[in-house]
Amino acid sequence: MFKYFSFFALLICVSSISCNAFAELPATINIISVSESSTKTEYVKKLKPQLNAEFNEINLIKTPAPIQQKGVYLIIGRDALTKFIDLKFNAPSIAVFIKNSSFHHTIISAEHSYYAQGEQLNTTHIGAIFSDPLLSKQINIVKQIIGEEQSFGVILSPITLFLKPLINQYATQNNIKVKFIEYQKEDSINKALNSLNKQKAILAIPDRIVWNSTTLKNIIISTYKNEQPVIGFSRTLVKAGAVATLYSNLDDIVKETFDRINQLYTKKKSINKKALITNSPKYYSLKTNRDVLLSLNLREPKL
After folding, report:
1. pLDDT 10s digits, 137-185
2. In angstroms, rounded to a whole number, what is the distance separating the alpha carbons of residues 44 and 145?
3. Domains of the chain
4. Is 20 helix (H, G, I), strand (E, B) or coil?
């Protein structure tokens, strides 16, 4: 009889988030921002019912910085992250609504600044949910479009050059090849495109130096004339003429946030720092431009 009682007790423990085997979920969720926006408001509104916690909204421009560290910090955007780092908190934190490149350079810049002052900055407690599409899956979309053992092109500026090893890795895993063009602001986009004219497709990476209002029309027209599909990084870019992209909507980002916070508290009596990863949401959808796919005689990719 004791055996059955123990098994029943175990089931209760496993199914309850307050079980003593695990650290308790945070009592406070701190929303850190420097400005108000409808996106932030809707994000908090959707997140609140998911977590049984007190929500504390802190605008670092309007409100004095909190002195006491408590709970988890959700940091809204690059500017808020810059100011949050200066608080020197070591509580678990997750930056959201931020590009991979913005997060990378904000952290690097802060580390260099502190180093120049003879200080060491620890940012291992800061994770991120990127606004970029999941890069590994984007490259799988490229593979579906061009086929195995084919080659695609990527234009990288100093902003995104740090992604080169990761793109190479994912290309190898998908059994496709990649050619990189390193691009400076003063360079000719036509020259860069000409250097990639034998590639079967172009993968667009969020990068304001490469993809902006001055270059976009030229890139889309040139690649279309050369029968090179562009795999975009946003629904707007697909609407402009790219053939496909993955994207995460607000509900996807809320679900990802909930998962990350839960993962933080699945380790016995301590924070699970492995949950403080920096990556795009694992929840996403596929957007395609069927007209461009059809005109280029390409098969529509799938998730």
Report:
1. 999 999 999 999 999 999 999 999 999 999 999 999 999 999 999 999 9
2. 37
3. 15-131+252-271 (3.40.50), 135-247+284-295 (3.40.50.2300)
4. coil
